[in-house]
Amino acid sequence: MPASTASEVVVGHDGSRPSEAGLSWAIAEARLRRLPLVVCHAWQWPYPGHASTPSVEAAAREAARRVLDAAVARVSRIAGVPAVLGRFVEGSPAAALVMMSSSATLIVLGARGGGGFDDLRVGSAAVQVPAHASCPVVVVKDSVAVPVVPFRVVVGVDGSPASEAALAFAFEEAAIRHGELQIVCSWWDAGAAQGTPAIPFTQVDGLEQVAAARFQRTVAPWLERYPHVEASTAFVMEPPREALREASVGASLLVVGNRGIGTASATLLGAVSRTTLHDAPCPVAIVHATRDIPHG
Predict the structure, then answer these.
(1) Which of 191, 169, 193 is nearest to 258 (CA)?
(2) pTM value?
């Protein structure tokens, strides 16, 4: 069961195709976690200042409310969701979802909203929310269909606090969906790359063995805690961006920490996390190190 004590799944919805994909994912999460689903629509006047005619702005606001009401009514007819609530917020979608993340178990949103151009892979909210949210965030692309069995989760682990939080979330996702889990650790020594000078006073093989042993020690307690989850490990000699992109092909979900080992603490979203958001062929979950991790 989820480690968090928060009590709702929140999904951003604006009626666009990407947000419909996010809504489908959030419905499944709410059913599996037995939590209420909060459908959030954030609306703001899209032009500088206010409309010259107040009735025009009021009509646009009311149209946005109807989009939210229609989504809530539709989801309310789906069996298995404990409760469905609508929340209409005036302001930016990213700010609204980040604010709601403090009381949420999970935030779900489409990779982009109704604005932007068709070839845009990831919108601003899909980057800002995972960077600032207080809970895990799943970003779903509209090209991704609702996952089918077997549900396969891939998680990247590098020994950082955020990656351990990601590992916890990945195990619980695999558990509640009765799926499979692949745990990937990418060990990459620039000195071992072709044409790159070796790092002096180091034994690459020895360093790799030490890293592999630490990886297995990190994973071992989770394997014991979730014996019913079919989990495998992969310790690969490849840059993490490439390793995770390859592992996520055909996966149902890719889970990463918001920043990896060696990333400055002031960085809210590391390079690998940003790359996976843009390039992964499946939904991506971003998890912060502040996530509660069960021990014992």
Answers:
(1) 169
(2) 0.85
